[in-house]
Design the sequence.
């Protein structure tokens, strides 16, 4: 018979498993915005009691990925396109400060990590693996932020990149997941500027990189806003 400490560990492990699985499905758009998340059905799916399911949903709610409605039903959070201008502003700022900071500090060991994620990104682009592209892109920029050396920036940038994953997934789907080679080349140019310690060049590249992402997402929204995806304009 398990003691209380063992029960807490088992429940915690179950919560983490459910959280990780649902988070990936939400961010990859396997679970679309507005999809219902019924505790009973999730309990049956994961073969767990409702307690770890409920705790996982609370964590996802804290991440802004699920929403509890007035009737107490839980759904995958809608995408608030109305907030995108302020999101883009924050994203652009973080591209700049982290890339500039990385060029100022430079660190050969961390650059190995940056290059590894760049290799993963290039391979994902070549393989048209959208989820792998988004994951590798996130890890690439987070590694650059870590090189810049400010943990507050790193945490905030990681959160922004996570919030943008579903938008990127929608965008990639509009051209059959054929990401332009331009993205890979821009990453290479960033790496070169950081390794050269060229702060101004790194800043210029970060501005351009952010601008083209913002522009393309804005074009997607203008073109495909009538698609049957749950969004919020309030």
Sequence:
């Amino acid at each position: 018979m398990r003691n209380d400490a063992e029960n807490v560990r088992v429940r915690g492990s179950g919560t983490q498993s459910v959280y990780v699985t649902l988070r990936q499905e939400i961010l990859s758009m396997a679970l679309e915005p507005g999809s219902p998340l019924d505790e009973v059905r999730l309990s049956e799916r994961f073969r767990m009691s409702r307690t770890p399911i409920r705790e996982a949903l609370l964590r996802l709610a804290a991440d802004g990925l699920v929403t509890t409605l007035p009737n107490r039903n839980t759904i995958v959070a809608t995408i608030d396109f109305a907030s995108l201008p302020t999101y883009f502003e924050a994203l652009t700022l973080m591209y700049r400060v982290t890339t500039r900071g990385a060029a100022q500090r430079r660190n050969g060991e961390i650059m190995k990590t940056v290059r590894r994620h760049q290799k993963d990104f290039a391979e994902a682009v070549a393989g048209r693996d959208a989820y792998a592209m988004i994951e590798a892109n996130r890890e690439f920029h987070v590694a650059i932020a870590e090189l810049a050396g400010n943990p507050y920036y790193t945490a905030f940038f990681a959160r922004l990149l996570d919030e943008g994953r579903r938008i990127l997934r929608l965008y990639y789907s509009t051209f059959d997941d054929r990401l332009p080679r331009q993205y890979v080349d821009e990453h290479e140019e960033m790496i070169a500027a950081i390794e050269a310690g060229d702060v101004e060049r790194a800043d210029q590249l970060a501005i351009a990189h952010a601008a083209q992402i913002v522009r393309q997402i804005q074009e997607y929204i203008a073109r495909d806003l009538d698609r049957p995806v749950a969004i919020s304009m309030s």
Q: What stands out?
A: Confidence is low (pLDDT under 50) at residues 4-10, 228-234. Residues 84 and 94 are 15 Å apart (CA to CA). The chain has two domains: 4-77, 82-226.
